[in-house]
Amino acid sequence: RRMAIELSDEKYRMYVEDERSAARREGLAEGRSEGSHQKAIETAKNLLDMGLSSNNIAKATGLDIKEIEQL
Prior knowledge:
This is Transposase (putative) YhgA-like domain-containing protein. By secondary structure, this protein is mainly alpha-helical. The chain has one domain (2-69). Helix content is 86%, strand content 0%. The chain has helices spanning 2-49, 54-61, 65-69. Helix 1 runs antiparallel to helix 2.
């Protein structure tokens, strides 16, 4: 019985560690995505200041035209 409890404890620890790792990977991916989007917005603002059209900025940055027009 003690061995069964120890195995259960070890399985639980492994499960918790797997969940932590998955959450960490998800958080890192989300952070990279948000950072990439912020960089696209900064680039769009600079291109607007340079007088480029919203259409060209959308092509260059991948942002929606509506989002660019709100900047």
